[in-house]
Amino acid sequence: MQRWLRRLLWSLSGSLLLVTGLVLAAPWLLKPTLNQWANQALQLAGVGQGQVVIRQWNWHQLHIESVQALLADGSQIDVQHLRLSYRPLALLRGEFQQLHIERIAVQQASERLTQAAQRQAQRSSAALLQQPLSLPPLQQWLQIPLGRVQIDQLSWHNPQLASDLQASFDDGLWRLWGQLQLDNQPLPWQLELQLQIGGQWLILLSEQQQRLVQWHGRIQQSNASTEIEVEQFANLELLGTRLPALAALPLGTLSGSATLTLPDNMLLPQDIGISGQWQLQTQAITQGDSELAANQLSLQLDKARQDNWQLSVRTAEIQLSRADAHANASPSLSASCDAALQQCQLQAQLQAEVSSAEGQATLAVDSQGQWSQLDGLRLQLPLSLSARRQVNQHDVAVSGQGQWQLSWHPQQGLTVSSEQGLSLQLSGSIAPWDISPWHSQWLSGMSLSCQPQCQLTAPLQGQWQALTLRQPQANLSTELVIAAGQASCQLSDQLLQRAPSELPFFGRCRTTMGTAASRWNGWHIADTQLDADLALSATGLWGQLQLQAANEALSLHADLRRNSDGSGHLQWYLQPTELAAEALQLNQWRAVTGVQWLAGQLSGQGWLRWHSDGSWTPDMTLRLDHVSANYDNRVAIDGWHGFTSLRQHNDYWHIDAQLAGDQINPGIALEDSLLRLSAQLVPHDIQQPWLGLEYLTAELHEGRTRLLGGTVRIPQAAYDSRKDINAFGIAVDHIELQQVAALEAKAEVNATGLLDGVLPIIVAPDGVSVPAGHLFARAPGGTLSYQNQTSAALGGSHEGVAMAMNLLSDFHYDTLQSSIRYQPDGELNLGLSFAGSNPNFFDGQATELNINLDYNLLDLLHSLRVTQNLVQELEQKYQQ
Q: Could you tell me which of 35, 167, 401, 502 has the fewest CB atoms within 10 Å of its CB?
């Protein structure tokens, strides 16, 4: 029996020793298997490639030398020297002593992880809404099955951010601290995150002892709820110097505080209680002589449990100042949402005023709307504006009303529309005009839809009623009537989707505008109408213009091209226009122009080119056909044709002209006339011709006309306005003396013969003169007969006169000369010298006779016009 017990004891002791040895050697024996299982676990977790190396495993510590993983997107995770310490008995209760990791490094190859994390965060946030939540006590938040967790180095690297952090976690304090390095910043940022068991927490971001962003507060818990206090500060001015997205914004500091109340068992978001307010300080902006003053924006958010959300956003008065004007605005926004954030009522207001020495303007917007998860956002945007300009004798007031509707839905996109658009009314006076109330409507029927790309489903439109401008102080009726008109623009669908520089075409606009029949100081002004069809692109503006006047009696067509560099042209064509058309009413201006149009057409064409340096160049031609007119009841013009061209050369304009006509008659008929001339006009400023001419020069290349049976020619003539005196000569050929004598029909003088000669012409500031002209008769001479009752009466009065009358009764001359002198006031002196004989007097003895005659040429021409009834005959010719 003792032997059996002894053997039993030895067997039990051996078994115990064997089991103890196996237990003690188990970690060493199972380590290869554990390595294999760990690598298989990485593969099962979806890691593309990975490796786990376990260096040591015993009953007190697990030491993993490295964990390396290569994710599918190319990102890498590297963990070095993970040590997990524990006691065997505590391990059975799920407790560990300490976790120590020397290094965790994450190398992100692209932005895929960030985007995936954002999507996951959005899904997680949405999943929390309307789900029952329970908040554990803070001590449970911080309780971990480890006495301490320490990470010596936590590194994160991606193309935008690199971090070098440390972390420690225990039952009393959770802490994460270290440096963050942005790719575009020369200095790193310091990060400090803390959460204490007493509820205090801190988030701090700084740079070299300068605080950038800070959140801190306290978490307090009662039996039924948790209260979180938050204090916030951000130095946006410093952040703006470091973050390009904020660089252009005039931000100062952001500060605020809030208190959140969370019940232990709740539904989000209706069971949240919050009360908070924030202040955003902005900086002043100065540009040139304009300054936008610094301001403060305030936001307040309040919600008691189960009550509505109340949001209010306000700013101090926004002030914009410049040397000659001042503007201020007061915007505000408020919202009221139900507890579950299913729908909200919105209200926004804006009051703005602009004032200057010349006047003031006000703008008011009072918008109301609602948002709901089902229907999205719907806003009513009423607009009210008024402006008044008072300077010198000008006083103009503008008022307007408008109404727009805005709707937005995540699936249906954004829509902005208006049935009536903006209605404007203008009234007042712009000296010397009084403006009757003028009504116009803009953007009616507008509809903009973005789903997500934006397009206008209807063209932009504008209509205006007729506007009458009157001059109450004018002696005669003066009013200008701007006719009712309209404009319409259809924008390209791609204009709202792509950058303008990428588009070949922006849109197309059509407009109709003009004036109705009006009066100027009692004179009639014909109606006009302009139709424009224009297209706009990144390269410029082009289109067609059609101008009509006097019920289409005048019609002008133009092609327009304006390039983005400022160059371009306007090519125009004026269709033949009847100058005597009754609709044009040109003859009502006869008292001003002196011209009565009886017949004829005006037509023309040309170019107006403008250049990228701002200059412009004209090139045009006008043509007259079959023109007949009466000028000042003194000159009858019949059957004239002509053309004139205007071109620019450097700093002057060059004019070429040619005129030809059947007759021009100021009392003595000039027939079959021709004039060819050119002129150079030199303005003070070629780009501002309205400032006047510096000087002009002209040259007559050819001039001829038939006069009194002969020809009058001007071989060549030149004129220069810079000279006080300009001179040229006129050649007279084959003038019939019989027609000269017939000018004074009552004198009953009969004459034959032909006259030639030269007349020097002087053009001076006081008018035209002939200082010493000469005419002479062609061989073999001619006859002169003056015998009537008047000559008989003169002969009876004096013996010498009687001898002269007898000589002239049948005088045959072989020599005739005449000197001619003419003054600007019309005084004409003729010095006649005859040499010949009267066969019936002194037996035909040769005799010389000298006669001086003085006339006023202007009076003579007037007498001839009256006698010949020229104007009435010409009017009757074209009135038949």
A: 502
